[in-house]
Write a structure and sequence with these properties.
The chain has 75 residues and is of the alpha/beta class. It has 3 helices and 4 strands; from the N terminus they run E-H-E-H-E-E-H. A two-stranded parallel sheet has the order 1-2.
Length: 75
Amino acid sequence: MKIAVTPNTLDDLKRLTAFTLSHRAVVTIAMGAKGMASRIYLPLVGALFTFASLETVTAPGQLSIDEVMRFYQSF
């Protein structure tokens, strides 16, 4: 199951995070500027994977694969 939302508030992100934590076999993504961080942290709390662009961004708030890799390599 994939769920993609556009959050308006921090509470929207909290609800999506809680949903991710309580479900298995789910892909959750928040779009737009307010959802950008979710593309990094939701896989860390249980989302199966995230989407990143190889060349052209295809959704609001989507990160490039290079940006995602740089973040995860910084751990």
